[in-house]
Every structure is written in structure tokens, then in C-alpha cells.
């Protein structure tokens, strides 16, 4: 199952890269056409907005899988292993519930907007809300897999804190390497 999730996330990264390239071409092409030729790509703004929405949700899936979301871990770091496990389990159960709510809401919005057409493309506005449905399904799989790994004892003590304190701390740790001393005030 983990290999399947890895493959899906690599595929999502490629899709996100393609969406970004299309978005850049549309926006840059539209700017050049407007200022250089007094014309433009009519659907550019709408499609770029949709691509941005989809990139955000798909990127959140990849970040969830890589545990790349930022969080505050100063309390959890000080807990014993059993406390860390309890916090991780509670956090994942709450996140699964939130993902369920997001799934229900996005699905309801997609159904409501199925017949609503976008102003310039004429495509269904359900495309926008489908991003939430796709995110909810993929995020639920990742969260359930992480929860299973926790409950089956497959996580090491180092894996019990699944957030990053700050981008700067992560970059500093990458620069200094894994064997470097922890920042002041943090226990090794």
C-alpha cells in the first residue's frame, strides 16, 4: 500500500508540474497578447484559476504524505513515547473526521454546481469542487495508512512527530546534516 501511495504522489507531482507549466503559458501568453497585440486568450484567467485550485489541493496531498505541513511540536516533543503515540492517534482521528466533512461538503457542492456553467469556458463549475473530493479521498488514504502504521507498531520514535517546527529549522537541519547538534533549547 505504501508503494502505491508513493507512486500516486510521484504522479501527482508530475501533474502539478504540468498544471504549473500550462498556467504559466496561459498567463504569460495572455499578457503578451494583451500588451503586444491588443488581444488575449479569453479562457486564460478562468482556466488559470482552476489550475491553481487543483494545484493547491494536489500539493496538499503530497505535503501530507511527506509530512511537510508546518506545526508546533514543542509540547509533543517533551512527552514520552506513549504520549506522542496518543497525540498522533488523536490527531489522525480528528484529521480523518475533518477530511470526511470536506468530502461531504465538496461532493454536495459539486452536485449543486453540476449544471452551473463557467462564464467563459462553459464547463461545469463542479470541476472546482471536485478538487476537494479528490483531496479528501487521497488524504483519507494517507491518514488511514499512517494511523494503521502507528497502531501496528511500525513507526519508530522519531516518526511519532509528523510536523515540522519551521521551514528555517528544517533548512538548517538539512544544511548541517542529521548528526548536527540540535538548536539551543532543544533536547537531542
List keywords for this structure.
single chain, 188 residues, mainly alpha, 6 helices, 69% helix
Tell me about this structure:
The chain has 188 residues and is an all-alpha fold. It has one domain. It is 69% helix and 0% strand. The protein has helices spanning 2-37, 44-65, 74-77, 81-112, 126-151, 167-176. Helix 2 (44-65) packs parallel to helix 5 (126-151). The radius of gyration is 21 Å and the shape is globular. The model has no long low-confidence stretch (mean pLDDT 82). Pfam families: DctQ.
% residues in beta strands: under 5%
The CA-CA distance between the termini, in Å, is 33 Å
Report Rg.
21 Å
Helix/strand/pairing class, anyone?
A: mainly alpha
State the order of secondary-structure elements, H for helix, E for strand.
HHHHHH
| Regions with little confidence, pLDDT below 50 for 5+ residues | none
Residues in helices, as a percent range: 55-70%
In one word, what is the shape?
globular
Largest sheet, described in full?
none
Figure out the total of helices.
6
How many domains in all? 1
Q: What is the number of E strands?
A: 0
Let me know the average pLDDT: 82
Keywords: Cell inner membrane, Cell membrane, Membrane, Transmembrane, Transmembrane helix, Transport
Function: Part of the tripartite ATP-independent periplasmic (TRAP) transport system.
Membrane topology: Multi-pass membrane protein
Family: Belongs to the TRAP transporter small permease family.
Amino acid at each position: 500500500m505504501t508503494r502505491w501511495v508513493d507512486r500516486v504522489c510521484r504522479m501527482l507531482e508530475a501533474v502539478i508540474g504540468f498544471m504549473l507549466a500550462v498556467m504559466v503559458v496561459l498567463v504569460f501568453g495572455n499578457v503578451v497578447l494583451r500588451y503586444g497585440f491588443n488581444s488575449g486568450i479569453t479562457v486564460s484567467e478562468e482556466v488559470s484559476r482552476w489550475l491553481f485550485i487543483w494545484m493547491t489541493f494536489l500539493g496538499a496531498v503530497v505535503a501530507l504524505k511527506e509530512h511537510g505541513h508546518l506545526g508546533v511540536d514543542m509540547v509533543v516533543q517533551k512527552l514520552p513515547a506513549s504520549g506522542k503515540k496518543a497525540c498522533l492517534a488523536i490527531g489522525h482521528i480528528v484529521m480523518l473526521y475533518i477530511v470526511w466533512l470536506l468530502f461531504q461538503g465538496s461532493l454536495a457542492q459539486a452536485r449543486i454546481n453540476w449544471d452551473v456553467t463557467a462564464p467563459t469556458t462553459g464547463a461545469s463549475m463542479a470541476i472546482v469542487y471536485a478538487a476537494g473530493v479528490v483531496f479528501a479521498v487521497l488524504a483519507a488514504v494517507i491518514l488511514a495508512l499512517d494511523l494503521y502504521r502507528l497502531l501496528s507498531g511500525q513507526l519508530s520514535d522519531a516518526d511519532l512527530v509528523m510536523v515540522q517546527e519551521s521551514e528555517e529549522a528544517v533548512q538548517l537541519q538539512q544544511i548541517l546534516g542529521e548528526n548536527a547538534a540540535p538548536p539551543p533549547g532543544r533536547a537531542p
